[in-house]
Design a protein that fits this description.
By secondary structure, the protein is α/β, with parallel strands linked by helices. The protein is about 40% helix and about 15% strand. The protein contains twelve helices and eleven strands. The strands form four sheets. It has a four-stranded parallel beta sheet. A three-stranded parallel beta sheet has the order 1-11-8. It has a two-stranded parallel sheet with strand order 2-3. Helix 3 packs parallel to helix 5. The longest helix is centred in the middle third of the chain and has 20 residues.
């Protein structure tokens, strides 16, 4: 086990960059097998990994494999399927209960909750602007999040709303509307610094306003010139990603230090590095991310 110094942040890696494809998407069939992936994450300097039980594995088998590689699980992720994805509400909630139960068996207390995105979805083709907002559809999605987060709570975890570019919960307005509609005892907030920035949110304000509901954060950095140029050009999600939007934490333009300060000096949740499309080779990307996270120190006061 890689020790985390006393008073330091808890940090982990979501190793999705090993599965990034040249078309700006992800392919779970490529990349290292589960055991090799765990070995690489630990070797890169991470003490924990985003929880994702491999298909066919039991929670106990996965937890033992993590331990064998010197890792512990950090909050995982559920992307709710919608009718437009061919997933009925009943099926989506059955998947929710099963996945939440598996995470509870790992000893987890929190998990990210988002809605699914597809390659040709309207907001993937027209990202980060709240494209085609529809009040009726929003209410349908809100209802599903309400039901799913209630099930997750029944399983002993707290869901963390995870706004994501390309989904129907993308903008600051949509994020606040969901968080304000569902009580904090049922739904937490699991922000992503990069996706919220891309959507034009006031990230620090959001973190300040909902900090008591945040137990896990996806730490993502980006290049603002790439963001601005592609947004102005109306580029798609994948074209923007291919153009080099994402970069390892600390190598981009986001004021991640100020964003973390907005969580407050008493924040004891997870910081999970996530580089959807790496600028460096995969292992070097993980090493650089771990190095940056390990060097963080807690702020003495909350940033205004």
């Amino acid at each position: 086990m890689i020790a985390t110094p006393a008073g330091a942040y808890k940090f982990a890696l979501n190793p999705i960059h090993w599965f990034a494809t040249r078309d700006g998407w992800l392919d779970p069939t490529i990349g290292p097998d589960p055991m090799e992936l765990m070995r690489l994450v630990a070797a890169a300097g991470f003490p924990a990994i985003h929880a994702q039980i491999p298909q066919g594995w039991s929670p106990s088998q996965y937890k033992q494999a993590l331990s064998d590689n010197g890792l512990v699980p950090a909050p995982g992720y559920l992307a709710l399927g919608l009718e437009e994805h061919g997933i009925s509400e009943t099926e989506a909630l059955e998947i929710t209960r099963r996945l939440a139960g598996d995470h509870a068996a790992l000893g987890m207390t929190d998990m990210f909750l988002s809605t699914r995105m597809a390659k040709e979805a309207p907001r993937v083709l027209h990202p980060a602007i709240g494209y085609e907002f529809d009040e009726k559809r929003f209410e349908t999605v809100l209802s599903l999040i309400d039901k799913a987060s209630a099930i997750i709570r029944q399983e002993g975890l707290l869901a963390a709303l995870h706004p994501h570019i390309g989904t129907w919960i993308e903008t600051e307005k949509e994020t606040r509307a969901v968080l304000d509609a569902i009580p904090a005892t049922q739904l937490g907030f699991g922000p992503d610094t990069g996706h919220l920035t891309w959507a034009g949110a006031d990230v620090i304000s959001l973190l300040n306003d909902y900090r008591e509901r945040i137990h896990a954060v996806h730490i993502k950095d980006c290049l603002l010139d790439v963001l601005d140029l592609n947004k102005k050009a109306g580029s798609s999600y994948r074209d923007t990603v291919i153009d080099g939007l994402w970069i390892e934490p600390g190598r981009g333009n986001l004021d991640l230090t100020a964003m973390l300060a907005a969580l407050g000096p008493d924040f004891d949740g997870w910081l999970i590095a996530e580089v959807d499309y790496p600028a460096l080779p995969a292992f070097e990307c993980a090493e650089e991310s771990a190095r940056w996270l390990r060097a963080l120190s807690r702020p003495a006061a909350v940033s205004a």
